[in-house]
Amino acid sequence: MKFYQAIDDASAGYTGDLDYAVNKWSLPGAQPCPTCRRGGGTTGLHYPCVDLSGLPPNELEKLTAPLPVPQDELTRLTELVRPFAPSWALLKPGAAFGPLTGKASGRFGQLCLQPPWTLLLRREALEALQGAGVRGLQGCPIHVSFRGKNAPELLELQLELHGRIHPDCLPQDQQPRCPTCGNDMLKLPNSIVLEAASLPEHVDVFRMADAWTVVLVTERFVDAVAGLGLDGVTFRELETR
Length: 241
Ligand SMILES: [Zn+2]
Description:
Layout: E1 3-8, E2 17-26, E3 46-47, H1 57-62, H2 71-81, E4 96-105, E5 111-113, E6 119-122, H3 123-131, E7 139-141, E8 143-146, E9 154-157, E10 161-162, E11 193-194, E12 205-208, E13 211-218, H4 219-228, E14 233-240
């Protein structure tokens, strides 16, 4: 099986803009770590199908304020959220939950990667791909108000985390994991080589476990998109080893 990185297809001419939409809730960022000085929130860990609305309003308020909080408060909020999240979910500072909420404008293709780590599909595209046997398509409705007529019905995919970088293609000066906060400070190489043993056999679209802003798909996904004539996203084959 071949694997590909999904990339927004700028040549398709779509003007769709979701820059003013964010998932409804998120874990706050972390205050800087005393050892590695890194803090803040991560980008790309989205769990749009996770519904936190059952939490008390005073806690939900803390999950909509992205300002960094001390580590013990971050741990407390993470444990508050964990029962609502899938068992495989990685819950890091800045992880986002619930429907995309906000405003959008412009024209959207059948598929849309915008920002480049958020994969959205029109409902008809999602159903067509499911009909073609593509696996791992958990679509979550979004709460976005579209400017103009003919608003598309877009769904954000909730993506599992799979796929590691092959150790051979990591930079020579790779730093070890921080002993205090566990941050691995992974520097993404220019050309990603995937470690074959880390790739899933049960889903055709997923988020890279070593790089959460990278959306990966299988050859089956790419073939189905081409066969159905779906547009908006293009694919770059990655080496696996
Ligand atoms: Zn650290």
